[in-house]
Give the backbone structure.
Amino acid sequence: MAQAGSPGPARRAQRSVRIAPSILSADFAQLGDEISRVTPEADVLHVDVMDGHFVPNLTIGPPVVTWIRRHCDLYLDCHLMMDNPGKFLGAFRGAGANGCSVHVEIGGTAGLIAQMRDLGLDVGLAVNPETPFEDCEPWLDQLDLLLIMTVHPGFGGQRFMSEVVGKIARARHAIDSAGLAVDLEVDGGIDVGTAPIVTEAGARLLVAGNAIFAQPDPVAAAHRIREAAQAALATVSPEGLASEL
Ligand code: DX5
Ligand code: ZN
């Protein structure tokens, strides 16, 4: 459960930006090698699960997570773009997921949060670009992670939606004002150009697929994104974040 109170260790950790390579843009025929290549620059591994209903695409499920778990020790951050994640949360936990994010748009959020907590999963809530922050705000103090989509979910390699930046800033303000230790993750169109923008707005966990795995040297690409974000963070004080709103 997210703990109130600051400044604590979690709050201090907010002074660094972490990188979550998304395997959606990896070569799935060589997934183990692809993961090993980015591991030196991966704080978290982002696993996109799509059901063909909530989003118009299909990807992977618990069996693949099981094999990823056997292959690496990285924290597995499973982004469930599904209409019925509740049916599969136990399987993801059993497969070795550390945290799961369900979308607020599907409803049933209270039950899904309770189910994730009972399973020992870190609890994430994801929000689409067009969904207002108000829809996730009531759940904020029950979350470990808020995942703000900066593209429409379903595909990698899309263009960053700058209209979502205000929502990131609002979320950062709400998290800090309440003294919560909720991680703020952004997902979609993150690269060296957009990483500073989302970091200045308040994101601290950056998902990147295309900008890492589609590059000739993925680990160097991830490192450049981290450096760009970290440089932006150095210009932002926690007090400054709140007063920017
Ligand atoms: C999109 C996924 C993202 C995707 C991001 O629906 O949730 O995690 O992998 O890919 P890029 O970084 O290429 O926009
Ligand atoms: Zn994702």
The beta strands are 18-21, 45-50, 76-81, 99-103, 122-127, 145-149, 183-187, 205-208. The radius of gyration is 16 Å. Residues 1-13 have pLDDT under 50 and may be disordered.
